[in-house]
Specification:
heterodimer, A: mainly alpha, Helix Hairpins, 3 helices, 78% helix, B: mainly alpha, two-stranded antiparallel sheet, 2 strands, globular
Chain lengths: 100, 658
């Protein structure tokens, strides 16, 4: 049997990739995908612990996360489309009109 | 006894008049304004007359007649009621105030007819009557103080009546500030009184004070109270050193000068000292101060009046001088003589101011004596009534001023009484001189104005009628106090005797020099006082004053100018009013302004208070300016911060776990 630590290390690696991508990339779609990556890294950790402890709580949580992520994707992509229409660009650094 | 039980109705009538005119007068016809203003004061006069009728039916034991209406302030052991009382002194003051006030209201209809502030004027004037009646009727010092401050307010409003004129508003402010100094003394006296007697009611204060020993050697709480009360009186009644506001107060309309700054308000100080006679009688040092200040004021103000050229300024300094006489009488223990002079002065000085107003009216606003002359034939009514008043103030035998001035001069006594008496008589001579100087320069000689330009006209009847009434009173107003020497009953002094009657073991305060008797010195140098010889001497001095004025201004009109040139230094000193205003400006006003500007304004207010508030705001703003750079608006930067925070937290957790 694969030990839990393996899953956790994979989860941490995915999360780290998501963070690094979020901080360093400029394309909004990419940022969005990085957020999904982080969410799913967390999901993986939930599942791993759920299996290790033999309880369903973690798996229930994962469904919640998937639902929220789906809703977030719907709203977020709508915003992305509007930004793309208004600014003719997907560069996040140009979305700064509220900056002082 | 409707009025005696409802004393409040007397002051309330003018207050109602002031409120009605002040609130609605603008929308009314002028006639309605007149009806309200004249009617309310006229009704107050009628009520006062009815009060006198009822008063004479009271038994001696019922006087002073107290009326307690409601508790005004009650805090701990302190209690002040809205309470009034009537005694003989109140009756005299009440009649003077309502009668002279009413006459001057009538006069004002004519005098103010052309004024755009007509309604405002009558509203203020009625308000003044209200406060003056409160002052006179109050039966405790706190309510008296309300009236005292209220007449000060009305005086301020009426001095600055022509508020578009800078000099008028400045004069109003000056009167207000100078009076604050006096009121400060009055207030401290009230605090001290409450601390000593535990009450501010006249009856409680006086009955307790009467039980205290006379402070012959000087210091003591009664002396302190008396002196502080007198500080208040010097402010309100324009005595040295606080008299400087009264000449400037002539910026107000002339009826105001007559009513407030001659006949009634400025005599409030004399009334207050007379009312507090129990305290003053037990404080010989304070009495001496009152007498000396009064005499010095009388003398110095008279010398200033000698050379003034503004008709109202002459009368203003004359008022200060006459008020000095009243304080001289009070200070010598002859309170009834002081009050007597107060009454006759209200008649003849009120008349003089109204006459001066009539002259100014006739001349189309001219106030300078040098531009008048020869008005006798043109305004005969004003001429004859002014003559009566001038004779009265100069002390011509038989006129009211003769008896009252004589009563005061007769009261002078004490260790150096001779010198005080001589100075008083000399002042009487100066009075006769400056009054006849004013009179001759106005009415006699050749006209010194362009008769084609100035259309001299007699005043309307409603201005002349009050002049006539006051002229009659100026002539006969002294007769009911004619001393026994002239086979008179001296009814006035006997009438006031119960008020000023002596405490047990104390010589009658109605008789002159009570306090000199009290300190066992008697009046050795002045054994001749009250005799015909002394009276004749005083009259002769006044006659000399008259003759000099006649010689200077009728016979040889060139003499005054040559004399002024020959004695240029003293002349300039007098014309400059001893430069007291300049002295005050240099010693008090300018340092105070400097201190206020540099220390209080720039250093304390701008530096410390504003500095602290603005400093806190600046620190918040600066730190905010630094912190706001964190919020760059770049989302990924925020995320980086979150990551950094998470890394730090995890590091700490791991480090702690080991």
């Amino acid at each position: 049997m694969v030990p839990v630590s393996y899953f956790l290390m994979l989860s941490a690696a995915l999360f780290g990739l998501g963070v690094v991508g979020f901080v360093f990339k400029r394309n909004i779609i990419t940022l969005f995908m990085c957020i999904e990556l982080m969410l799913n890294a967390v999901n993986l950790a939930f599942i791993a612990f759920s299996r290790m402890l033999g309880q369903l709580d973690g798996q229930v949580f994962v469904f919640f996360v998937i639902v929220v992520a789906a809703a977030e994707a719907a709203v977020g992509l709508a915003i992305v489309i509007l930004i793309a229409r208004n600014r003719k660009s997907l560069n996040v650094e140009r979305v700064d009109s509220m900056k002082l | 006894m409707p009025v005696l039980t409802h004393l409040w109705i007397i002051p309330l009538l003018p207050l109602a008049g002031a409120a009605l005119n002040g609130l609605f007068g603008r929308h009314w016809l002028r006639r309605s304004t007149n009806v309200v203003a004249i009617g309310s004061t006229g009704l107050a006069l009628l009520a006062a007359l009815e009060l006198v009728r009822e008063f004479f039916r009271l038994g001696a034991a019922q006087i002073p007649w107290p009326q307690d209406y409601f508790t005004w302030i009650a805090a701990g052991s302190f209690r002040a009621d809205f309470a009034m009382q009537v005694d003989q002194l109140t009756v005299v003051m009440l009649l003077v105030v309502t009668l002279v006030g009413w006459l001057i209201h009538i006069y004002s209809i004519g005098y103010m007819a052309e004024d755009p502030g007509y309604v405002r004027f009558f509203s203020y004037l009625n308000l003044f009557m209200f406060f003056m009646l409160i002052l006179v009727l109050a039966s405790n010092y706190l309510l008296m103080f309300v009236g005292w401050e209220g007449v000060g307010l009305s005086s301020y409003l009426l001095i600055g009546f022509y508020f578009r004129k800078n000099s008028a508003t400045n004069a109003g402010n000056k009167a207000f500030w100078v009076n604050r100094i006096g009121d400060f003394g009055f207030l401290i006296a009230l605090f001290l009184m409450f601390r000593t007697f535990g009450s501010l009611d006249f009856s409680a204060v006086f009955s307790q004070a009467a039980g205290m020993p006379s402070e012959l050697a000087g210091g003591g709480v009664l002396t302190a109270i008396a002196l502080l009360l007198f500080v208040g009186a010097t402010g309100k009644s324009a005595q040295i050193p606080l008299y400087v506001w009264l000449p400037d107060a002539m910026e107000g309309p002339t009826p105001v000068s007559a009513l407030i700054h001659a006949a009634t308000m400025v005599t409030a100080g004399v009334y207050m000292v007379a009312r507090s006679h129990v305290i003053f009688s037990l404080a010989p040092v304070a009495m001496t101060v009152v007498a000396v200040i009064g005499l010095l004021t009388a003398f110095f103000a008279a010398t200033i009046a000698l050379v003034q050229n503004d008709i109202k300024k002459v009368l203003a300094y004359s008022t200060i001088s006459q008020l000095g006489y009243m304080f001289l009488g009070c200070g010598m223990g002859a309170f009834s003589a002081g009050i007597f002079h107060l009454m006759t002065h209200a008649f003849f000085k009120g008349l003089l101011f109204l006459g001066a107003g009539s002259v100014i009216h006739a001349m189309g606003g001219e106030q300078d004596l040098r531009n008048m002359g020869g008005l006798r034939k043109k305004i005969p009514w004003t001429y004859w009534t002014m003559l009566m008043a001038t004779l009265a103030i100069a002390g011509a035998p038989g006129f009211s001023g003769f008896f009252s001035k004589d009563a005061i001069l007769n009261s002078i006594g004490g260790p150096n009484g001779m010198y005080l008496w001589l100075l008083g008589v000399l002042t009487a001579g100066l009075t006769a001189f400056y009054m006849f100087r004013l009179f001759f320069m106005t009415f006699h000689g050749q006209p010194r104005f362009d008769e084609h330009k100035v259309h001299v006209h007699e005043s309307p009847k409603n201005m002349l009628a009050p002049l006539g009434v006051l002229a009659v009173l100026s002539v006969i107003g002294g007769w009911w106090a004619a001393p026994e020497l002239f086979h008179g009953g001296n009814y006035f002094e006997h009438f006031l005797f119960p008020v000023f009657s002596p405490e047990p073991g104390f010589p009658a305060a109605g008789t002159p020099n009570a306090f000199w008797y009290a300190i066992g010195r008697g009046d050795a140098p002045l054994n001749y006082r009250g005799t015909l010889e002394f009276m004749a001497l005083a009259t002769a001095v006044a006659l000399i004053g008259f003759l000099i004025a006649w010689w200077f201004y009728l016979r040889k009109p060139g003499v005054p100018k040559r004399l002024a040139a020959a004695l240029s230094a003293p002349y300039r000193l007098l014309a400059g009013r001893y430069f007291v205003d300049e002295l005050y400006a240099a010693v008090i006003v300018r340092p105070l302004v400097w201190l206020s500007t540099n220390l209080l304004w720039h250093a304390v207010d701008e530096g410390a208070i504003d500095g602290a508030v603005n400093g806190v705001a600046e620190v918040a703003q600066d730190s905010g300016g630094i912190l706001r750079r964190v919020y760059s608006g770049n989302m990924r930067t925020y995320a980086a911060w979150v990551v950094l925070g998470a890394v730090v937290l995890i590091t700490i957790l791991i480090w702690m776990a080991h």
